[in-house]
Design goal:
The protein has 527 residues and is α/β, with parallel strands linked by helices. The chain is built from 12 helices and 23 strands. The strands form 7 sheets. An 8-stranded mixed sheet has the order 1-14-9-2-3-4-15-23, sandwiched between helices. A hairpin with a 6-residue loop joins strand 6 and strand 7. Helix 1 packs antiparallel against helix 7, helix 5 packs across helix 6 and helix 5 runs antiparallel to helix 8. The chain is globular, with a radius of gyration of 24 Å. The protein starts with 34 loop residues before the first helix and ends in a 16-residue tail after the last strand.
């Protein structure tokens, strides 16, 4: 398979890059670590590579400073509104959210050689692959949720950290445009607005990383139900050509698999995300059993490939910090890693585009917000913690009430803030008033600016029957603020919600240990 066979027209590369580990320590005394200890650490490092799913955290046992210099860093959040960090559960454990981004950059000779037009050189890259990796508070499971690139969403206001240029909020617009509006921090801001969860870190890999990664691990087994050739008479397609059954793909062929749209399922970006999930779960299994990564030379290749391809947020920009992160992720067993796609439907204005599926999409996102595993194995545990800060008398608590009932598919309920403020007044919160500040929330929340008002905020939530895990600290408010969300558009009683214990069928769940999955082939693309 030649480089030219990877077609420019197949727009979306997914670029998982591998990671190694850095042990970095020396024994006490004058002698450095011996070869036996070094080999043991390298084997342990190889096993932990799989945990990051995309393999994007990187390090190695050797070349600590050299590898540190390879890692590129960028600001985490370019938006101007904050989402509070995840709250600990009753056991003091905190979930973690990592945004994995695949850039379609063609700003290097190697990236361009792997696919694309010279006309694309110099243009801002697009975030054609976006996956939110949610690690549960107890580290028992991970849920990975993909957003198809052609989903029409709202991208919030972002400020370019390099030149101060302000990109105003825009939408509906294709989801992959966020990266071009200042960098990966705008993609983070977009996800925070979309999912209403705090993003702790991001990892972004470039166009060529997947090729080096696949070569370093000796290939990733993938499966198709029939012979497939991703090629059309007018030049579209990735060029992928495989026989039915399982084939280890590496190098350019691995990139073709991850970019294939024409030839899988119905020829849309949805099928492409499913193929990417199959590849990544297979890569996880392959990394964990791949003995060749116990070889120092192979590990160095993997570490170089990973760190050269990697851009991370500033708080994650050293080998030590990546090492610490992979230590946390290593706790999750492969069988509890669940891949899914955020449910979408056709966009009414253009059937070639998609929009979030009403109901189903929020069901998936609410499971992320409530730290519920996607594999249906939810444990019954307390998620709410009562504040140690005593609440003031109800009539002494000032409450601002905002109308956040609007969404991308529905206008706000008129006068909703005033109606809920009256409800609070009737329950003794006489200082509750309507606040006209624009807001939009999928779920009703009570926000407070500092620990001295946490008890007051929880008292407001309790009076209305709002769960305590909907009470959050936020720098966007100056006092206790109730934002009435789209989940409470009408009525005097907050609707009791049963958090789903499994995602909808439209999320296309794939378990991390499922090794018999095969991609359906699109009609007309067999040979």
């Amino acid at each position: 398979m030649t480089v030219s066979s990877v077609r420019a027209e197949e727009e979306t590369p997914a670029r998982p890059a591998g990671n190694g580990r850095h042990g970095g320590r020396r024994r006490r005394g004058k002698e450095p670590d011996g070869p036996r200890r070094g080999m043991r650490i390298l084997r342990w490092t190889a096993a932990s590579l799989a945990v990051l799913v995309l393999g994007t955290a990187g390090a190695g046992y050797l070349y600590y400073e050299h590898l540190n210099g390879n890692i590129k860093k960028a600001k985490l959040d370019l938006g101007d509104s904050s989402i509070p960090e995840s709250k600990p559960n009753a056991d003091g454990q905190t979930p973690m959210n990592i945004l994995l981004i695949g850039s379609d950059s063609r700003n290097s000779a190697k990236d361009l050689a792997l696919g694309g037009s010279k006309a694309d050189v110099g243009r801002p890259p697009l975030a054609d692959v976006q996956m939110l990796l949610h690690v549960s508070a107890d580290r028992s499971n991970m849920s990975v949720v993909s957003l198809p690139r052609d989903t029409m969403i709202t991208i919030p206001k972002c400020t370019d950290p390099d030149n101060g240029h302000v990109f105003q909020q825009v939408g509906p617009i294709m989801a992959n445009e966020s990266l071009a509006r200042g960098g990966p921090g705008c993609t983070v801001a977009t996800w925070q607005q979309l999912a209403k969860v705090h993003i702790d870190h991001f990892m972004m890999v470039d166009f060529s990383g997947v090729v080096d990664m696949a070569d370093a691990i000796g290939g990733v087994p993938v499966c198709v139900r029939q012979n497939v050739w991703s090629h059309t008479s007018d030049g579209h397609g990735s060029g992928l050509k495989l026989r039915a059954g399982t084939t280890p793909v590496k190098g350019e062929q691995a990139l073709q698999w991850l970019r294939t749209r024409y030839g899988f399922e119905d020829g849309t970006d949805i099928g492409r995300t499913h193929a990417q999930h199959m590849y990544m779960t297979s890569m996880v299994r392959q990394l964990r059993k791949n003995a060749r990564l116990g070889n120092p030379t192979e590990m160095r290749k993997l570490a170089e490939a990973a760190t050269n391809a990697l851009t991370v947020d500033e708080s994650l920009g050293t080998i030590k910090k990546l090492y610490d992160l992979t230590t946390e992720l290593q706790k999750v067993p492969t069988k509890r890693i669940t891949m899914s796609t955020l449910p979408v439907v056709e966009w009414p204005q253009d059937t070639a585009r998609r929009m979030l599926a009403p109901g189903d999409a929020d069901q998936v996102l609410s499971m992320i917000r409530d730290d519920v595993p996607m594999d249906g194995r939810a444990a019954k545990h307390k998620t709410e913690q009562k504040s140690k800060d005593p609440a003031a008398p109800d009539d002494a608590i000032a409450v601002q009430v905002r109308n956040g009932t609007g969404s991308d598919t529905a206008a706000p309920t008129p006068q909703r803030a005033g109606a809920v403020a009256q409800l609070l007044q009737g329950q003794g919160f006489t200082q509750a008033v309507k606040d006209g500040t624009a807001a939009s929330e999928a779920e009703t929340v009570v926000q407070y600016p500092g620990a001295d008002l946490e008890g007051d905020a929880q008292a407001v939530a309790k009076a209305l029957g709002i769960p305590l895990n909907h009470v959050h600290r936020s720098t966007d408010v100056s006092g206790v603020t109730l934002v009435v969300g789209a989940d409470w558009r009408t009525g005097d009683t907050y609707p009791k919600k049963q958090t789903p214990d499994k995602p909808p069928a439209s999320a296309a769940i794939l378990a991390g240990d499922k090794d018999d999955a095969c991609m359906p082939v699109q009609k007309g693309f067999t040979w």
